[in-house]
Amino acid sequence: MSRRGELDAIVVGAGPVGAALAAALARDGFEVALVEARTPKPWHAGDEVDPRVVALAPDARDLLDDLGVWPSIAASRAGAYRHMHVWDATAPGELHFDAAERGEAALGWIVENRLIQHALWNALVPDREDREAAVHGRSFHPSSGTVRVHCPNEVVEVENGEDAVVATLDDGTRLRARLLVAAEGAESALRGRLGIAFEGRDYGQRAVVAHVATERAHESTAWQRFLPGGPLAFLPLADGRCSIVWSLPDAEAARVLAQGDAAFRAELGCAFDFRLGAITAATPRLAFPLRLRLAERYLAGRCVLIGDAAHVVHPLAGQGVNLGFRDVACLRRVLREARERDNDPGAAHVLRRYERERRSENALAARSFDLIERVFGSSSAPSAGLRAAGLALASRVAPLRRVLADAAAGRR
Ligand SMILES: Cc1cc2nc3c(=O)[nH]c(=O)nc-3n(C[C@H](O)[C@H](O)[C@H](O)COP(=O)(O)OP(=O)(O)OC[C@H]3O[C@@H](n4cnc5c(N)ncnc54)[C@H](O)[C@@H]3O)c2cc1C
Asked: In which pathway does this enzyme or protein participate (predicted)?
């Protein structure tokens, strides 16, 4: 469908979201260029589990399945969780979700970011030698369409014209397409270059992550305890350990990062109320700053934002990449429909449909997580009352529990 020498889309950033979009568009027969600044590190089964993991919701799994990459992820290292258990350190009440109640095998899967990216990269660049070498502008045909991979490369200039967008790369290559998608993550340089501002706040928290072994089995349960300083999650890994995400005020995070191993394990066990007994081993810790960021628009001319470039949310609900995959599914549908109607995929009225649908849903999700963070992160008496009432209500009222579980699973 592209005009001579012109691509349908340029996707900038091959993280989980950008790589999934490039694979989806190629599968649908579009001609795509994918520009990634860093050659993704290969994933090997013998490697230690990467410290960055995500909880994938069922609709994200469905997308990866449709792209043909889920079987290799599931066969490699995906920890299914069948239960979710949430409670508060200072208010009574507990909330429990069960996959069986929903007639499903799992509520979600804990997967390493790097494994998702690796599986998608394998689909996009099928040859191992090509993957390991830097790929400058080589074309691959993962399905009916074409993906031209530019890696390691960055976009240094964008001409956002009326008929087409032209991106100039750092090696001088000029790519011309109907549409450019910025998927470069939270620090998106293109977002600024396109003049798109964002609103939000710094949580003044960092998420400390590590993998830990516990005295008792994790029971395929995603556990979350709300503490006055921030939530603490224990996510079940396929190898029987848990991946922890411990949101702490900056100074507390710095203190915890500097602790010796035994002191850290003791403090972590205590913070988790020893639900799984003592913490018997822990990997080195890493920390990520936590921020809320919502782009004021997703659209500038023929360019759109997607994934963390458009929205960064608190990890307490484990929804960041799931929202990004919902962006992929929506943009893919909108572009397919445009083609069926013989419309230009980069036309403003086409891209506005994507923006309208995803911006409101992402903003609602982000503000809901923000509200939960404020209510559960406060030690004031009214907040404690609200927490207790909220947990009691949600745990007793089955339809409300179902609504919450559906929202987390990406099923409305
Ligand atoms: C502690 C923590 C826990 C989390 N847990 C969960 C969870 O359980 N569930 C969940 O859904 N989400 C979770 N998230 C969020 C999730 O990690 C992000 O939403 C997700 O990684 C965003 O994917 P992305 O592809 O949009 O961006 P990224 O993963 O940031 O990828 C961006 C890509 O763009 C490339 N890039 C950057 N700049 C350029 C450039 N100028 N040119 C070319 N390429 C560029 C980068 O190299 C990278 O490959 C968590 C986040 C944190 C911090």
From this structure: Cofactor biosynthesis; ubiquinone biosynthesis
What's the CATH code of the domain at 192? 3.50.50.60
Structure confidence at residue 247 (pLDDT): 96
Q: Clarify whether residues 313 and 280 are in a common domain.
A: no
Q: CB-side exposure of 302: number of CA atoms within 13 Å?
A: 24
Q: How deeply is 204 buried, as exposed, middle or buried, from its count of CB atoms within 10 A (0-12, 13-18, 19+)?
A: middle
The DSSP secondary structure of 188-215, one letter per residue, reads -HHHHHTT--EEEEEEEEEEEEEEEEES
The CATH code of the domain that includes 98 is 3.30.9.10
The residues lining ligand 1, judged by C-beta closer than 6 Å to any ligand atom, are 12-18, 35-38, 54-55, 113, 154-155, 183-185, 189, 207, 209, 245, 288, 307-308, 315, 318-322, 324
Structure token pair of residue 163: 């008929």
**Residue 235: which domain range?**
80-110+204-290+385-409
Q: In terms of domains, do 249 and 333 share one?
A: no
- For residue range 64-110, what is the model confidence (pLDDT) as tens digits? 999 999 999 999 999 999 999 999 888 777 889 999 988 889 999 99
If one counts the domains in the chain, the total is: 2
* Tens of pLDDT, residues 234-246: 999 999 999 999 9
